[in-house]
Here is the input.
Amino acid sequence: MVSTADPLSITPAALRVRRLGEPGIVSPMAELLQSRVSSPHYVHELDRVLLDDTVDGAAARLCDVADLPSLEPGGPREYIYFDPAATRAAIVTCGGLCPGLNNVIRGLVLELADNYGVTEVLGFRDGFRGLVGDSEPVRLTHDLVAGIHNRGGTILGTSRGNQDPSRMVTTLQHYGVSLLFVIGGDGTLRGAAKIADEAVRRGMRLAVIGIPKTIDNDIPFIDQSFGFQTAFTRATDSIKSAHTEASSTPHGVGLVKVMGRHSGFIACYAALASHDVDFVLVPEMPFSLAGESGFLAKLRHRVRRQGHAVVVVAEGAGQDLFEYDGAVDASGNARLADIGALLRQRIIDDYAATREELSLRYVDPGYAIRSVPANAWDAVYCLRLAQAAVHAAMAGRTAMVVGRWHGRFVHIPIPVATGGRNQVDPNGDLWMSVLEATGQPERLF
Ligand SMILES: Nc1ncnc2c1ncn2[C@@H]1O[C@H](COP(=O)(O)OP(=O)(O)OP(=O)(O)O)[C@@H](O)[C@H]1O
Ligand SMILES: O=P(O)(O)OC[C@H]1O[C@](O)(CO)[C@@H](O)[C@@H]1O
Here is the structure.
């Protein structure tokens, strides 16, 4: 996996998580924490966590493992910054859907209420729009979140589109919110940073914690993003269908388009999981259509040899084959040209030109892969992210996201999390596995 935010180029100062003030209140979890410290299984992790609250500049010093950047460890603190009885929290979900959103919402509500005694939790509707609009937030109670973790989507709704940070902070001030949990992708996290900055400018005690969401798995300093595993598992079902169709007809080609705007992780993992794919096309690896070494010729060759072939293409692949028309979505993200439709047509034209028989089946699982409930692995991960987010917020951290990096929950300053992108490394072992499993040439030019 390649992260364009190079850990080595990030200074310890940049990695230091912002704090709202000195910790003062003994955590309601202190007893639990102390009892765990005596257990050998927890000492190592909690040593770091407890140390963090007693050592100045701990973020820079905690790094004792050579290949880890000095990210502050996640987890409960002995002392907390906010008084639970006087604290109101809020949750908002933004950007595209992702399996596990409801799990995170429920995890936050239950962790806040059951382990910290924060029972006032508001849900703002329809993403950042809910922080500037007229709609009243919903009070998130135990009853309201019961069972939501078994459903896809988000009970709060989501949206794209820029909103004024000043108006959003005014709304939060109006409702007396001191903890804001923002669940979303890189755009959302940039918005969250602006909210945190505006709150600081106003001298408001507001902890803004991001829970990074992306089925594309493209946020740096996160081993794997929540919902990704569920999404590629669902995509694997579509690939199996395409393979069944293609292998059941003469000269069959199954073409499957999956999501992945800048990063081809879903395409790679789904292709490896199904292990019946002949070509994987991802944004990170440019390819040409024409020529003896181009994609079309290689595809024909494979169908002739094997009788059928399956192609998986990520939606962001091959965008250089189009002239960009400048179209953007409500949030300003470039609208992608439809690579699935282009490939489908070019394969049909190519076979027509060579007068060979073709039976092409095109499958676009698109939204079906991201609207499903989280699988068991993602459900566990979402809950643990929610717990880590609440620990961070209650301890007075702000303008940061929680994530699991090299197997540990860590606090990542927002500018670090949005400063780069995880992509499939053309020289890495994941892409090597794809080449081994598909037998496709290293270069399709
Ligand atoms: N640079 C930015 N500054 C402030 N707000 C932003 C910025 N970029 C995006 N946002 C806001 O964040 C919200 C979500 O952004 P966006 O639609 O780009 O999705 P995302 O969080 O990147 O998730 P996805 O991975 O689904 O695309 C939108 O309401 C948008 O207004
Ligand atoms: O159709 P929408 O909601 O704009 O979302 C599509 C985009 O969202 C994602 O699923 C997540 O960022 C991308 O893979 C995709 O390009």
